[in-house]
Every structure is written in C-alpha cells, then in structure tokens.
Amino acid sequence: MPAERSAAFGPGRVNLIGEHTDYNQGLALPFAIAEGVTVRGQPLPRESRDAQRVSAYARDLDEHDEFSLAAPPRARGWRAFVRGTTAELASAGFPLVGTRLEITGDLPAGAGLSSSAALEVALCLALADVGARVCPAGAKTVRRVEIAQLCARVENDWVGAQTGLLDQLASLYGVAENALCIDFQTLHVEPVPLRLGRWRLVVLDSGERHVTARSGYNERRAECAQACRLLGVESLREASPSAVERLPEPLRRRARHVLGENERVLQAVAALQADELARIGQLLDASHESLRDCYEASTPAVEATVERMRAAGAAGARMVGGGFGGSVLGLFAPDTHPPAGAREVRPSAGAHLLEG
Ligand code: GLA
User: Fold this and answer.
1) pLDDT digits (tens, 9 = 90+) for 181-205
2) DSSP label at 157?
3) pTM exceeds 0.70 for this model
4) Are 86 and 130 in contact, with CB atoms under 8 Å apart?
5) Is there an atom of ligand 1 within 6 Å of 257 CB?
C-alpha cells in the first residue's frame, strides 16, 4: 500500500446481554463480530484545488458524497455518519487532510448489528491515520474510549440518535473468543472468555429495519431520565429496587427492566466463568421477556422471529440492540439446528488498521 494510504476495519457487534443499560450507567456483555465495515482512505493530490475536501464513495450503495473538511453541511443517511465523524475528528484536533474514502461492508444496515458504529469507528481510524501519515508532526495518540465518545457525539448530534457507548466500545475493544463486560459507570472494559465449544450463537433478521433516531429509542431514554429526576438520582445505576417500585407507570416498568438487566449481566458473567451455557440460554429468555413486557421495545415481527428460534430448539433467544425491529440472537446447543436464514456469529477482534 503506498505510504500515505490507509485502510481500517470496524466490526459490528452482538450484545450477549445487557440491553438499554449503557445510557443508564449500567452493565452490558457484548462482543465484536467478524462482519463489519472497511474504510479505505487516500489523500487527495496536494496540487488539487479540492485538497480541503472529502470525497466519499459507498461502494455497496453505489452512492457518492463530497463535502468541505472545514465545515461539512448536515446530511441524512450514511452521509450524516461520514460528515459527522469527519467534523468531530477535526474539532477534536486530529490533523485531517483532503481525503478520498471508499466504504464497503458486509453488515446489513438496520439489522441491530451496529453497522453505524462499525462505520464511525472505521472512519475514525482511517481518517486519523491518513492525516497522521501526511502530517506526522501533528499526529495524536488517543485512548480508544475517547474515540468511542467522539463516535457517540456523531450519533447524538449529527444523526439524532441519543445512543450510549455500547456499540462503539464493543467495536473498538473486541477480543477474539471473548465477550466484554462493560461497566458504563467507570467505562471499564473487562474481557470474559466465551467458550462456546460446540454450542452456536446465531442471529436471525426480523426483516423489520430499525432506525434508532426514529424508533421509540429516544422516548425510552427520555423516560429513564424522567425516572431519575423523580428518584433524585444521577442514573438508574444508583436507584434502589424499593424506590423504583414507587415510580408511576410506565416509568416503574422501564426502571425494573434496567435494574433486572444489570443483575442478569452479572449472572451471565458468572455462568460463562463456570461454563454453564444452558444458564446463558435462560438468561437470554429472561432478558427478552423483560425487553418485551417492561421496556416494550419489541414488535410483532421480532416476536415471530423469537418464536422461530424457539421452535428450532434454541436454548434461549432474545432481541438484540435498540429494538423496535432488527435481529434476534439465539443460542443453540450441540446437535440442534438454527432456523433457515440464521447466521452464526463469533466473538472477534476489535477495530484495527489493515495492512496492504
Ligand atoms: C442501540 C444503541 C446502544 C444501546 C442499545 C440498547 O444499539 O446504539 O447505545 O443503547 O441500542 O442496549
């Protein structure tokens, strides 16, 4: 690869358990998957009049975008992610240069596997690396947690989704054959070996696209904030179960989900440490029930997909990600067979620069 070119890969993620806990400063247990987004970057020629511009090509969609590095205008769809990531990197002081980007990927968008975080993270690594190769003097070393926070600002301020840090941290910190126990109060990330043996984790797309910025996601987040105001706490992590019981509905159900889900993450870590995969299956079922009944984040298409997993003999199944559509995760014991269309997912390495 010529010296000033760069390429980066950002993986998608599956969350084993711990849903809608990140923005409540709770716990989650996601893992990065092998599928994701690749961004290739090369500086525009120095003599080019357009050197202070970014030109992006989304190969899978066969769509282009071009914008000024200095002040990218707002946009929608995939362009919002590219422009927002560029603008946030620039304002965080990364030395960026006019760059031509090419984006490819093998993650379905809107399927709840975090294609947007995969894109943001790969863009960050590729754009920052091109900038550092062209201007080595200005190169910046940053902690991955700061990249995750920068990407979350893209979601919040450029895309309009009030998401937390789950997807970006999972994509950035992934470790092959491990899940990551994330504590969102301290932002500590602890790899936990996920020894599947002959068991399989699969995802099945409900076929219902979810767009976080337009689903009930922001409403749920606002309900949790309202519950905190009534309880007089900074986050639901500090709320006691007895105080939660005094909340008015639907806030009580929402908070019950969050407290119960944090507890299930701890139980899942203990089950993984003891190699009790059947117990993980029970926890997946309990998480789904709570997301459906307390958090009301399921839909008929998601329920039908969970049913297909169960009918095929899943040891446990639940919706993953923000909900309101997207994919369902299922755990299958040896010699059981996931339904047609399910794809196996394996805990894989986190975001990285690619050689050659
Ligand atoms: C989406 C968001 C995450 C997280 C999950 C729910 O994936 O991007 O921040 O809130 O939903 O757990």
Assistant:
1) 999 999 999 999 999 999 999 999 9
2) I
3) yes
4) no
5) no
